[in-house]
Amino acid sequence: MLVAVTMLLASGCSQPGQRPGSDPASGSTSPSAPAGPQPSSSATTDDPATRAAALVAELGDEDLVGQVLMPYAYGDRATQVSAGSAAGNQALAGVDTPAEMIEKYRLGGLILVGFSADDPTQGNQPTTNVDNPKQVRELTTGLREAAGKLAAGSAPLLIGTDQEYGVVTRVTEGVTLLPSALAAGAAGDPALTEAAWRAAGTELAAMGINVDFAPVADVLVTRSAVIGSRSFGADSQRAGQQVGGAVRGLQAAGVAATVKHFPGHGHSADDSHQDLPVLSQSRKKLAAQAWPPFTAGIEAGALAVMSAHLDVRAVDPGVPATFSYKLLTEVLRGELGFQGVVVTDGMNMPPARRWGPGEAAVRALKAGNDLILMPPNVSQAYDGVLAALRDGSLPRTRLVEAVTRVLTMKFTLADAPTPELSALATPEHRAAARALAAAAVTVLRGRCDEVAVRGPVTVTSSDGRAHTRAALTEALTEAGVRVVADGGTIVHLVGYGDRAGDLRADAAITVAMDTPYVLGQAKSATLLATYSSSRASMEALAAVLAGKATAPGRSPVKVSGLSATTCAG
């Protein structure tokens, strides 16, 4: 059996840019898999790829199909859920609990979902199953126990989430919250980024999460609300340095990094959670501007790349990149040299729902994806892939190739330690977040030596930001600045989604806590940016306003009428 699979891999696991074989006769239906994990030759080697190939040889059709699916589930526990969550799982997969979903469909992974008020991705987050670290750790432990009963159980279940930090952060309580990617871009120090993301990776691992769908490698060349501060900035080379730092940090902690959204969502201002954005740039411009951060992530060793629902007119017009062989196999693998796992963006998003779940999953696999994320109906996706495998419309070599990549990533992560929950929000981790946030604070208008406030301060903001006002108030008080309800120097905060109408004309200082574009319309004598509303960012801002720290950041995006910084250096 192992010899047969080795021959299949030799013919089916293509070199970069080569199309996998498409002959339906290249393999027959494999025998049924054993009921549970069986001993394999993987015990003789520690090489993840060799272990993956050996395990693939033991898997039947149903197990192969399950390994390329990574849906979400309803419920905050693996085996016990509310009646509402059970109903959600029944509609999604014909089961009651997340554990039953894993067992029935022999899943390769599960994504944990959730959203917050300013989250631009909430459109494809139909539920939430994350609350606090203890609950997440209990959930992931239960999910792994269910996966351990599968034929592929010797390879750890992939449990992922979108922990980007900033506006897209699934677990927000009890963890160290890093400043946004745009803040890291303003800081411009990959070493600080790497240290902060290593801390973040350690905390994810402590909760039982081994895949982070981050960092965002999109270059912010448009004023995109859906990407915005999730990007490291508008300069592809500088953004690439930051992507590399984030990848190295995460994976040093045993968490797979996922560089996204290929081929570059920052080159369109439209939102793929609503429609199919069009990238009208030339291939040459995309190669020069959009793809360098992905290359940087690949060179840093990223284990995964996420494909995006984007219509790249210069390469494969009318075909979303998720379903484009030209983009995923010829460009991403052939030209950029990526050999790891390609995972789709959410298949429950509108551009992917132009086909039924089964046909969409098959199309995505044939294009070059290895992992199907968030199918809108797990039963239909599973049945569609299984039927296509058996009738030959999905070449067995392509599925074997995809599963081998998924299992290779699993075995790469298999021996990473799982820290205790006491590793969360440690002084060292908070210090790493503060260092990155402090390096990001930027003066876009006003003299650097006159930023510090004199006398009491009144903190105001646009609506809905009481929590952030309170955080800055507390940080200013701790820094020795008196905060009053009215009459002091007005420091006005603006954040995600705010526009000119959310500015305050009489504010002495206006601070942008997301993309800084709105500052171009502000009248304040002093304009600052933290690019983030995290606790670390508010502490860094307070230190600058108290005169205890400088503002060394440079805006990583151009703001009309303002310089990147008014500070020297």
Give a written overview of the molecule:
The chain has 569 residues and is of the alpha/beta class. The protein has 18 helices and 15 strands. The chain has helices at residues 2-12, 48-56, 61-67, 83-93, 98-105, 133-147, 181-187, 190-206, 236-252, 283-290, 292-299, 325-335, 357-367, 378-391, 396-414, 427-440, 466-478, 535-545, and strands at residues 69-70, 109-111, 158-161, 211-212, 256-262, 278-279, 304-307, 311-312, 341-344, 372-373, 442-445, 457-461, 489-494, 509-512, 526-529. Helix 9 packs parallel to helix 11, helix 13 (357-367) packs across helix 14 and helix 16 packs across helix 18 (535-545). Residues 20-49 have a biased composition (Low complexity). Belongs to the glycosyl hydrolase 3 family. It catalyses: Hydrolysis of terminal non-reducing N-acetyl-D-hexosamine residues in N-acetyl-beta-D-hexosaminides. It comes from Micromonospora gifhornensis.
